[in-house]
Specification:
It is a single chain. The protein has about 80 residues and is mainly alpha-helical. The chain has one domain. The chain is built from 4 helices and no strands. Helix 1 runs parallel beside helix 4. The chain is elongated.
Length: about 80
Amino acid sequence: MSQASLLRAYEEIASFFARSPSSEEIAAFHLSGQTVARLRELLEKNSAGTLTPDEADELDQVSHLNRMLLLIRSRLPRTDIPQA
């Protein structure tokens, strides 16, 4: 991702959480198609061994964002478990 693409990913996440989404909305949240397409491009370059150092850093930062989203989702209240 270029720095602009990386900034877009941060902006998407910040804007999403700024509107106080419900647990269901958080569970369903996805980055934009444009951001996902760039991430796929980086992953392909990584697999091919052609990432530049800057691209490797960007991919690492996106990985951190993804881990943060997974952590947030793991802390959502479970609504599919019947309450006794």
